[in-house]
Amino acid sequence: MDLTTSIVSFAAVVALLTITPGLDTALILRTSLLSGRRPAWGVALGIQLGLLVWGVVTAAGLATLLAAAPLAYDVLRYAGAAYLVWLGLRMLLASRREHADTPDTREVRFRTGFRRGLVTNLLNPKVGAFYVAMLPQFIPPDAPAAAVGLLLAAVHAAEGLVWSTGLIGFAAVMSGLLRHPSVRRLLDRVTGVVIVGFGVRLAVD
């Protein structure tokens, strides 16, 4: 398999992963609908930077070491699970507040969204496990592993940005309807339950 074929094949695999509804999609949509484009782009860029970090770590062999060390993997897994449960519970509690129709000012900044997206991605060891399992299959034997690993992660991040653009654009079109106070509370509850569910699944899986 040459480098071009590797990139095309990897792009096809991660495209399916990218468009599959999951935690990243829920975070981007919820942030875009409730706080606007700028914080949503913060979340999206934070997530994609996390992918690049995992790509570099995997190419450097550190993620393989993490996968081979059960204790280290479990520490990261439980930290990620605790963060997701905390994040989801905050959304659920916000939806129950008497003034839940007022936007949460703690979520309207770009840097807050960026930090949330980055931390959520970096504390998910399943991303590292996916890269450990997938990247070696798409790196040609005669190619520099670190450089190609980073290139493949960049392809994944680029597809994520394209998907994020679609999600944020959809939210902008639907913002008039979906920012109604009752709909906003419902979004907080649904997204909170989804994120808590991801956290619990990460802890017990």
Strand-helix topology:
Elements: H1 3-19, H2 23-35, H3 37-59, H4 62-68, H5 70-96, H6 110-122, H7 125-134, H8 145-178, H9 181-204
Keywords:
about 0% strand; 9 helices; mainly alpha; about 200 residues
Task: Describe the protein in words.
Helix content is 82%, strand content 0%. It is mostly helical. The two termini are 34 Å apart.
What is the number of E strands?
A: 0
The termini sit apart by: 34 Å
Number of helices: 9
Count of all domains: 1
Structural class given helices, strands, pairing? mainly alpha
Low-pLDDT windows of residues? 98-107
Largest sheet: none
> What portion of the residues fall into strands of 2 or more residues?
under 5%
Percent helix: over 70%
Q: Radius of gyration from the CA trace?
A: 18 Å
Average of the residue pLDDT scores: 80
- Element-level helix/strand string: HHHHHHHHH
Instruction: Write down the overall geometry.
Output: globular
Entry summary:
By secondary structure, the chain is mostly helical. It has one domain (about 5-80, about 105-180).
